[in-house]
Amino acid sequence: MGATKTDHFTDQQNKIAIITKALGHPARVAIIEYLLKVNTCITGEIVNELPLAQPTISQHLKELKNAGLIKGTIEGNSVCYCIDENNFEILKEYFSKIISTVTDQKCC
C-alpha cells in the first residue's frame, strides 16, 4: 500500500497542521477563548455563550479534543472541558520561531 501524503512530512509539521486545522473555524476559536476566560466549563455553559445548537458545539468540541487543544473529564451526565496546555506550548514555540525569523529577514 502506498504512503499517505502526510508521510512525506515530519511529525512536527503534521502536528502543527492538525492543530491549526482545528483552529480554522471561528466557532472553535470562540470556544477556546471562552474556555480561557472561564478556566473550566461544562458543555451546557458553552451553548449559552455561542449562537450554535448543542450538537454543533459538541462536534466542534470533538474536533478540538481530537487535535489535543482541549481535554475533558466526565462529571455525571456532563463533560467538563479545559485547555490542554501542552499543545498550546507547541504552537507558542512554532509561531515564536516564525515571528523571530520573519522579523530578522532582510528580504523584498
From TrEMBL:
It comes from the Bacteria. PANTHER family: REGULATORY PROTEIN ARSR, TRANSCRIPTIONAL REGULATOR, ARSR FAMILY. Keywords: DNA-binding, Transcription, Transcription regulation. InterPro entries: ArsR-like_HTH, HTH_ArsR_DNA-bd_dom, HTH_MetalResp_TranReg, WH-like_DNA-bd_sf, WH_DNA-bd_sf. This is Winged helix-turn-helix transcriptional regulator. SUPFAM superfamilies: Winged helix' DNA-binding domain (SSF46785). CDD domains: HTH_ARSR. Residues 8-106 form the HTH arsR-type domain. NCBIfam families: HTH_metalloreg. Transmembrane segments: none annotated. PROSITE patterns: HTH_ARSR_2.
